[in-house]
Amino acid sequence: MSGRGSRLIVVLALLIGAALALGTLFGESLFDAGQLVQAFTEPGSGPAEVLWQVRAPRVVTALTVGAALGLSGAVMQGLLRNPLADPAVLGVSAVAALGAALAIVGGAAATPGAVEVAAMFGAALAGGLLVLFSARVRSPEALILFGVAVSSFAGAATALIFNLSPSPIATAEVISWLLGSVQNRSWIDVAWVAPTVVVAGALAAFAAPGLRMLSLGEETARTSGLPMARLRLLALLAAALATGAAVAVAGVIGFVGLAAPHLVRATVRGDPGRVLLPSALAGGLILVVADLLARMTPTDQELKLGVFTALVGAPLFAIIAWRAAREWRL
């Protein structure tokens, strides 16, 4: 890692630490100094329960989910050599959402972990299809088209669930879940997503040399002597695992995986291998801050995190794209 890249990681880590502290200390209900002291000194008190059993797992879940989305976006943009690639491009998010929707409508939501398992199964299914397809077709354009087809089919199937759902309550639960949120998440949810993100990060690190070679062109990658087929497979698995874990715990949250790599890419000079860790950290920071702002926004009903990231993030990304376009013209 270069000097600039190392400094970026340190800065992001410090910002994440500050965001985690703010997300834990502040919320819809503000504590006075006495209540904060009580939260730190009396483990069984009400303020302690709110801080350590409600807010702390929520912000840590937001951090891990955002890191998963940022990592997945960076891997996909490197693998497909497309700056517009994000976790939704290959259909993993859509199939994971379909699995969760089937579990909710089928009445499995009352069973702890059932929706998460269904979403992870959907992500694994989509990842398996992508692996089989990529083993036969190496073109990134073809992989994108296949992903779009998978995503469209899964989206249509999810719409069919809405159409045929016998219970309006189940339909409302599916819609609420699909909008994305980390509200009411616990340390169990952190235990769901965190190990998977660590495994996905390790796979992405192993795939980094292949992503770096792909940035030089398909011919250069083919003659590099690296096991490109294996490295592509590792990259696909990393992206599918990270996306599946994020969707399983928080629902569908857009923009983060698309924007996080763009926010840090210039610092690492566009290196697809070096952008992975900063993208994960940036994604985690974005989602922690977005969740805090969604909680603090004075509305009668708390804004869903997926809605908030789209409302705030889309204009920001448009500004980033406009600045990038100006640089390309120069």
Structure, explained:
By secondary structure, the chain is an all-alpha fold. It has one domain: Orthogonal Bundle (ABC transporter involved in vitamin B12 uptake, BtuC). Helices cover 76% and strands 0% of the residues. The protein has 13 helices and no strands. The protein is globular and about 65 Å long. The two termini are 28 Å apart.
Features:
330 residues, mainly alpha, ABC transporter involved in vitamin B12 uptake, BtuC, 13 helices, 76% helix
Radius of gyration: 20 Å
Q: How do the helices and strands follow one another from N- to C-terminus? A: HHHHHHHHHHHHH
- How far the N terminus sits from the C terminus, by CA atoms, comes to 28 Å
Task: Domain count, please report it.
Answer: 1
Indicate the structural class: mainly alpha
Q: CATH topology, anyone?
A: ABC transporter involved in vitamin B12 uptake, BtuC
- Specify the number of helices: 13
Highest CATH level, the class: Mainly Alpha
Give me the CATH superfamily. Answer: ABC transporter involved in vitamin B12 uptake, BtuC
Number-wise, the strands total: 0
Net shape: globular
Q: Give the rounded overall mean pLDDT.
A: 83
